[in-house]
């Protein structure tokens, strides 16, 4: 490692200080009566308009890790890494009609988490607990990955050691603790301004310097031909994987608790729908960001210490003057803080509402809840830092891969549940179990292949599951999470038919059909609902 | 089974009026969902545009298709709400 680049580091630190000040200021911004209520702290009072929601959900979905890992994937594998673009094209029309139903029913019934909804809709504390645990388990490594993003930037600037990451996350932890969801909403403005600035400059400057787009694509093709892996186009056997990974990731995205937290904070159904047509602007940016991977190939960029995630920071360092590289690095660094904050809040909400209050302290007051949620969000973040420092970061990447596949298994309860209650609560549990086992088994069976098809690692080597494992005579691969979802759905339907034939009690629906289309103006829609008042099956002393 | 009335003592004035999200325009949303999944149709090099292989520029074009269709459906929902 050469020494530390002081100009880059100075600019980076400057932006970090500004953002920290903003984070603390957020506590006073749009202040409500009391932050000591879970709705206020964890959902920002549920009153974010179109633009704030756009920045918030945008910051939530397009994370620092995305900005670092997607181009790194394109750098290494080519076309297969571009799946992030169809994935973020498919997601918005897919959930355009679904997420507004969740918004409505949550605002009528006072749901803060997806598990709240499942508990009430299916009258099933068991399925709610499974949804909560799945959500927490899937979110934790995601937070850890944000640290991988910051680490890549720090490494490129020549800063090594764990201390800077610990400091960055301490700051994050303290201001999320004091400002709740408003902190990330506010700093997302800064983050996106920096990101867009960086991308626009990069897309104009870098290809021009390199001699044009055809040179960029040409260099990439040459590299893949030489290496014998990857390519500008997908191999025939990789097309199903590409489509199912895009679709599966899109289905999974709004099952993640942090996306739901972001969506529920919107002011109205209209706000959300407007966002579904505005958010693709980020997808366009993502497409260009992905191609930074090819630009790095054409520029002959070599990753720092052989760490693939440093490809984009290293490219910026090579192509930009130091002060502007510093701006770009700040964009990535701050880009990590926004989603990490929202994710830790979402995980904390799940723990507080669906584990603490449900199982540990049934008579928790709103003040109790807010306190526990704040503490839980700290614990989650400390856990993420510890995971990065004490465990190989590769482990977080593996876990995140698993996270995507397992969060998908909550689709029947959370997604389909918004439309019908036909699925039986017992069948949902059975389907979840079957899907989970399939996902873990399939991911376990996937080896990582190096150049020339040599097996580098035996297990958890990616998400492309070979259909030949199932006895098919083909080299075609499919996204493991998608396969697991299919198994899950089949089991849910079959077990539902059996349980309904046996007339097993399916509980009482705690929601009404009109709840799902309620508008903000309706008297039933509340900003600060009392969740206990509408909880179904509440025993007398709780009601 | 049917969606049952809520069990608790919700006042009648507290309940949202019946509405529907159904709308013929919703079918438009299928276009940006299905198009990107038809990988074999666009997994090719030609025609190129500004040096970009078809595979890459067409997927950015899908982003535009997504924006246009969701905006149209949004408009349809807004019209329904007002009128």
TrEMBL record, chain A:
InterPro entries on file: Na/Glc_symporter_sf (IPR038377), Na/solute_symporter (IPR001734), Sodium:Solute_Symporter (IPR050277)
A Pfam match: SSF
Stretches for region Disordered: 510-543
Biased segments, Basic and acidic residues type: 517-529
Cell compartments where the protein resides: Membrane
Key words of the record: Membrane, Transmembrane, Transmembrane helix, Transport
Membrane topology, as annotated: Multi-pass membrane protein
Membrane-crossing residue ranges in chain numbering: 6-27, 48-68, 74-100, 127-145, 157-178, 185-206, 242-266, 278-300, 320-351, 372-391, 397-419, 426-444, 478-499
CDD domains, per database record: SLC5sbd
Family: Belongs to the sodium:solute symporter (SSF) (TC 2.A.21) family.
Protein name per Swiss-Prot or TrEMBL: Sodium:solute symporter
TrEMBL record, chain B:
Domain of life: Bacteria
Keywords: Membrane, Transmembrane, Transmembrane helix
InterPro entries the record matches: DUF3311
Regions crossing the membrane: 25-42, 54-74
Protein name: DUF3311 domain-containing protein
Species per Swiss-Prot/TrEMBL record: Klenkia sesuvii
């Amino acid at each position: 490692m050469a020494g530390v680049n002081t100009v880059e580091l100075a600019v980076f630190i400057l932006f970090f200080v500004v953002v920290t000040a903003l984070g603390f200021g957020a506590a006073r911004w749009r202040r409500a009566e009391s932050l000591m209520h879970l709705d206020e702290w964890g959902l920002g009072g549920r009153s974010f308009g179109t633009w704030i929601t756009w920045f918030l959900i945008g910051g939530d979905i397009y994370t620092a890790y995305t900005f670092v890992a997607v181009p790194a994937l394109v750098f290494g594998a080519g076309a297969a890494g571009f799946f992030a673009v169809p994935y973020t094209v498919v997601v918005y029309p897919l959930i355009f009609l679904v997420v507004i139903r969740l918004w409505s029913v949550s605002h009528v019934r006072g749901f803060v988490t997806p598990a709240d909804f499942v508990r009430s809709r299916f009258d099933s504390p068991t399925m709610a607990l499974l949804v909560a645990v799945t959500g927490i388990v899937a979110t934790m490594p995601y937070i850890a990955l944000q640290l991988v993003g910051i680490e890549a930037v720090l490494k490129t600037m020549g800063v090594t050691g764990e201390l800077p990451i610990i400091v960055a996350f301490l700051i994050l932890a303290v201001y999320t603790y004091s400002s709740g969801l408003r902190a990330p909403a506010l700093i997302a403005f800064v983050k996106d301004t920096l990101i867009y600035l960086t991308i626009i400059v990069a897309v104009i400057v870098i290809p021009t310097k390199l001699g044009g787009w055809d040179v960029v694509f040409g260099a990439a093709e040459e590299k893949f031909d030489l290496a014998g892996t990857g390519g500008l186009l997908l191999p025939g056997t990789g097309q199903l994987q590409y489509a199912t990974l895009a679709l599966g990731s899109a289905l999974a995205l709004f099952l993640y608790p942090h996306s739901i937290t972001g969506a529920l904070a919107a002011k109205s159904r209209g706000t959300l729908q407007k966002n579904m047509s505005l958010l693709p602007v980020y997808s366009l940016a993502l497409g260009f960001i992905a191609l930074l991977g090819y630009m790095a190939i054409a520029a002959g960029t070599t990753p720092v210490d052989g760490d693939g995630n440093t490809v984009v920071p290293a490219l910026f360092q090579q192509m930009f003057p130091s002060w502007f590289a510093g701006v770009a690095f700040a964009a990535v660094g701050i880009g990590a803080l926004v989603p990490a904050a929202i994710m830790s809040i979402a995980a904390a909400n799940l723990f507080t509402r669906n584990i603490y209050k449900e199982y540990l302290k049934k008579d928790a007051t709103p003040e109790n809840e807010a306190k526990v949620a704040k503490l839980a969000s700290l614990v989650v973040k400390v856990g993420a830092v510890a995971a990065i420092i004490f465990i190989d970061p590769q482990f977080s990447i593996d876990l995140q891969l698993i996270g995507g596949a397992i969060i998908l298994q909550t689709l029947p309860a959370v997604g389909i549940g918004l439309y019908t209650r036909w699925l039986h609560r017992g069948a949902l549990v059975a389907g979840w179990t079957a899907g989970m086992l399939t996902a873990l088994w399939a991911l376990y069976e996937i080896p990582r292949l190096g150049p020339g098809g040599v097996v580098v690692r035996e297990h958890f080597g990616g998400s492309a599951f070979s259909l030949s494992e199932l006895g098919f005579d083909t080299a075609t691969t499919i996204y493991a999470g998608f396969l697991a979802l299919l198994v899950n759905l089949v089991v849910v339907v079959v077990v539902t038919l059996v349980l309904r034939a046996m007339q097993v009690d399916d509980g009482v629906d705690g929601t009404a059909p009109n709840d799902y289309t309620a508008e903000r103006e309706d008297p039933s829609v509340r900003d600060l609902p009392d969740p206990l008042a509408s909880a179904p099956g509440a025993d007398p002393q709780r009601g | 089974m049917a969606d049952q009335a809520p069990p608790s003592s919700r006042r009648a004035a507290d309940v949202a009026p019946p509405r529907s999200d159904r709308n013929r325009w919703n079918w438009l949303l299928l276009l940006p969902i299905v198009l990107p999944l038809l990988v074999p149709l666009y997994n090719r090099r030609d025609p190129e545009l500004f040096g970009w292989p078809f595979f890459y520029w067409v997927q950015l074009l899908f982003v535009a298709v997504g924006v246009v269709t969701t905006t149209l459906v949004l408009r349809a929902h807004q019209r329904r709400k007002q009128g």
